[in-house]
Specification:
Elements (H helix, E strand, L loop, with lengths): L20 E9 L2 E10 L4 E10 L2 E10 L7 E4 L17 E3 L15 H11 L16
Antiparallel strand pairs: 1-2, 2-3, 3-4, 4-5, 5-6
């Protein structure tokens, strides 16, 4: 994935390798231009979604939705204090895990697919239209 798709100026180590399936969706939330990075590593059964707001040529990551085979289900990492967030980083120092450590949103009973990642992201972030910027269907 090229950095221009989801630019993070201060996260030099953030990369998605060739085994990841990913898609970036451009959104407008209120007056803000945003992007949703949906990614899945099918072999490792790891899914990561980042919701970010465009800030100049950078992204301000508002929340991360994740599921790992080594964890019990989906969870969100977010920091509600927007004043402490820094554009260009994937994490903030005061973020919280929801639900808390050891708890889960829903136990994962089967293999996670690209459709699962998309559906979970749109439901969690309360987004209503799942399509690409050109209006076509979104496929990871």
């Amino acid at each position: 994935m090229e950095k221009r798709h989801f630019p993070l100026s201060k996260a030099k180590s953030f990369k998605l390798g060739s085994n990841w399936h990913w898609r970036v969706v451009a959104l407008t939330i209120g007056d803000s231009k945003c992007r949703l990075l949906l990614s899945l590593h099918p072999t490792k059964q790891t899914a990561r979604v980042m919701l970010g707001r465009e800030v100049g040529q950078d992204m301000l990551v508002l929340a991360r939705l994740e599921s790992h085979a080594s964890h019990s289900g989906w969870h969100v990492h977010a920091d509600c204090d927007m004043g402490s967030k820094v554009p260009g980083r994937t994490r903030s120092t005061d973020e919280q895990r929801v639900p808390g450590r050891g708890k889960f949103i829903k136990e994962v009973d089967s293999l996670i697919t690209c459709d699962d990642v998309t559906a979970r992201a749109f439901k969690t972030f309360m987004l209503h239209k799942a399509s690409t910027p050109d209006g076509g269907p979104m496929v990871l």
